[in-house]
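Structure tokens please, single chain.
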Amino acid sequence: MNKIEKNIKLLKEITPTKDEFINEELRPSVKTSFNCCNCSANNEIEITPYQTGFPFFQVYKNNFLSVKSILNNKIASCSSSWASHFGEYLVYDLPTLYFMKKCDTCNEKFLIVFGYGESQPSKWVCKISSIWQIEEID
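Here you go.
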């Protein structure tokens, strides 16, 4: 799990095997996978609540990825007024996090964005918004 520290370019969106987890499915962690678009290797993702990911606002506040790209590619949407304290751009109006993962086989880089939190009383959700093959730009 790595942070984004350079500008990035989105190359291709990849679909995980499962992208939404509710209540008991979150314990002790969320596990899903995706296939690398470069070498076809199966890559596992594990999201542990309150341990995995970095605040998504770092990506757009540091201009590593433009707000236009975030909205046009439906990575996140504009925050509703009641959830704006979580950030300007969110997944399901939940606190939104991200991390970069390298393919286990070929080291291709992927951006993984997800929302995690209580979507309504007693309903906890982890929603993986998207997985993108990325290129870091110097």
